[in-house]
């Protein structure tokens, strides 16, 4: 089991299965397992500003902000940790095409 800090991933470029740069790691989705945390996946995109407000999971933004925050997150995608092939220098290489990734991490929950 490898151990690392979320800060080691944040901001890294993400390259998809076809070799195309698809964004950068904006957030890390984790689950707490006792005293440890397990990485479930990565949130990719161009900007993390809307997500930093806490919207994107089950928390809905106030009506006036819904369109603005939705527009700000339009490039956001979620990649399951199992689809990460390797950490290659300053990039995260994923084994799937960008188009197949869900738009939000909660759209992927089982």
In a few lines, what is going on in this structure?
The protein is mostly beta strands. It has helices at residues 49-52, 63-72; strands spanning 13-15, 21-33, 36-45, 77-80, 84-88, 91-94.
Secondary-structure element pattern, one letter each: EEEHHEEE
Number of strands: 6
Strand order of the largest sheet: 4-3-2-1-6-5
Return the CATH architecture: Roll
Task: Explain what the structure shows.
It comes from Nocardiopsis sinuspersici. This is Sporulation protein YlmC with PRC-barrel domain. InterPro entries: PRC-brl_dom, PRC_barrel-like_sf. The structure is a single chain. Helices cover 13% and strands 35% of the residues. The chain has 110 residues and is mostly beta strands. The longest helix is centred in the middle third of the chain and has 10 residues, at 63-72. The relative contact order is 0.22. The model has no long low-confidence stretch (mean pLDDT 77).
């Amino acid at each position: 089991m490898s151990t690392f800090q979320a800060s080691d991933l944040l901001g890294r470029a993400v390259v998809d299965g076809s070799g195309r740069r698809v964004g950068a790691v904006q957030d890390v989705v984790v689950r707490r397992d006792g005293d440890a945390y397990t990485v479930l996946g990565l949130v990719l995109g161009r900007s993390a500003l809307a997500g930093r407000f806490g919207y994107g999971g089950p928390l809905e933004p106030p009506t006036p902000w819904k369109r603005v925050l939705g527009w700000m997150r339009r490039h956001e995608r979620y990649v399951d940790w199992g689809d990460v092939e390797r950490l290659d220098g300053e990039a995260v290489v994923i084994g799937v095409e960008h188009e197949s990734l869900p738009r939000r991490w909660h759209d992927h929950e089982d």
